[in-house]
């Protein structure tokens, strides 16, 4: 069995007057045939790793072997603390945290794939920042993470959560939709508002190409984590203000699947199109060949 | 993990940056170690396809070393795998290879102790999300995904050996999911791979080793063993 619609969950939440996170904890208990205590404990472990990846990410100063990333999170965070900011301090903070996690992942740090390693910055950064803004408890954070799970599950069942199958809409797009739902839950919104925020967010990621430069999860991936984390917070606020997505979430996922099917394989992680094929993109690929200390030995073939 | 679990979307916990080129590479390295049966000392690693292009940026070299040292996909030591390799006395060479079109674009060949009597080699694919498929073990085509425990046996091609093997397995009430057996080219030997449903007890290994003509017994635990959330 797969989770292929948000509707039964929304109905249950409404009927039992529960939040989406609470409903998803019950769901997980049923799926794992385990206790709520164990389920919540497992999610706390996930959260611990996420928090550590944020803390480590914003400290990074070293550039990656490709020379494309490293140190940006730190710069953005510094800006949030000093002087004027056009986007606002919270936006800078959430972007810095998301980019930090992505940089940490790039430097072989331990992260939580959410849903993938390339998109691992968005959910932690948005949850962390939403919790900070709302002064939320750990319990609320855990519920937020569970709420985000439903969004990911439906995307996975009805479309995909892999860039090689459906482009980046399915990776960072999905992670941002998951994060928007989590943020609503943390802010105390209803299940309906959480799913609506995810719909608003996912609509704005449709068609996103996966065209990583030199085949690495760095450009555009790392900065995109930051951009989309900022958007996820906005989607959550929009939903909480009463703005409704005209297309319901389930149908947005179908649209994502439809678009994913139509996308050419050049922009599905093959690095044969888009940014990977630009002059500078190709130059990075060549440069990478000669960086680092380890060299490949002469091969026999 | 079942399809409906939220931990499929929030997880696994892993060393970045790539589930296929890092986590998958760790598992391929670990598979070679398990096949060899002890800490390998001399290893040649061949990168095919996209690994040959992107190994550096994905840390696939460190990931494989980590796997050869027995690390799991979330082990922080992977980042400093070279240091731990030195401590373990592991010598490793990396080369590029063109295995041919038949092979998945994300393939790796690992040879342990090239040219020595106890040499083993394996070709495996990283098929995405950290999942791998073992395609070849010492010239023998396989299709092991590691979603279950797999028993790998090298034995003299004696009549009746196979029934002794299956007999030993069922004597522990273990369910056999798949079984493949084939002669190893140019040797008087056969390789048999058996996927079983449950985790086998230690005694099974001992019992299998006692079978006439048995040359090698390896038990590959399921790939995600030790990585479970519950
Ligand atoms: S661009 Fe491609 S590789 Fe990068 S995060 Fe998006 S889907 Fe993953």
Tell me about this structure.
The complex is a heterodimer of chains A (301) and B (230). Chain A is mainly alpha-helical and 301 residues long. Helix content of chain A is 61%, strand content 1%. Chain A has helices at residues 7-16, 20-32, 36-57, 72-81, 89-106, 122-134, 138-158, 163-166, 172-186, 191-203, 221-240, 249-262, 279-289, and one strand at residues 110-112. Chain B folds into 2 domains: 1-137, D-3-phosphoglycerate dehydrogenase, domain 3 (60s Ribosomal Protein L30, Chain: A, 2-Layer Sandwich); 146-230, ACT domain (Alpha-Beta Plaits), CATH 3.30.70. Chain B is 27% helix and 32% strand. Chain B has a 6-stranded mixed sheet with strand order 3-2-4-5-6-7. In chain B, a hairpin with a 2-residue loop joins strand 5 and strand 6 (131-137). The longest helix of chain B has 18 residues, at 19-36. Chains A and B meet through helix 2, helix 3, helix 5, strand 1 and helix 7 of A and strand 1, helix 1, helix 2 and strand 3 of B. Iron/sulfur cluster is lined by residues 118-119, 163, 168, 171-172, 210, 212, 217, 220-221, 269 of chain A.
List its salient traits:
heterodimer, A: 301 residues, 2-methylcitrate dehydratase PrpD, 61% helix, globular, B: 230 residues, alpha+beta, Alpha-Beta Plaits, 2 domains, six-stranded mixed beta sheet, 6 helices, 11 strands, 27% helix, 32% strand, binds iron/sulfur cluster
Précis, in short:
Chain A is an all-alpha fold.
User: Proportion of β residues of chain A?
Assistant: under 5%
**N-to-C SSE series of chain A?**
HHHHHEHHHHHHHH
State Rg of chain A: 19 Å
Q: How large is the share of residues in beta strands of chain B?
A: 25-35%
SSE topology:
The complex is a heterodimer of chains A (301) and B (230).
Chain A: H1 7-16, H2 20-32, H3 36-57, H4 72-81, H5 89-106, E1 110-112, H6 122-134, H7 138-158, H8 163-166, H9 172-186, H10 191-203, H11 221-240, H12 249-262, H13 279-289
Chain B: E1 13-15, H1 19-36, E2 42-47, H2 50-58, H3 60-68, H4 81-88, E3 91-96, E4 107-112, E5 120-128, E6 131-137, E7 140-144, E8 149-156, H5 161-170, E9 176-183, E10 189-196, H6 202-209, E11 214-220
Parallel strand pairs in B: 2-3
Antiparallel strand pairs in B: 2-4, 4-5, 5-6, 6-7, 8-10, 8-11, 9-10
Bound molecules: iron/sulfur cluster (SF4).
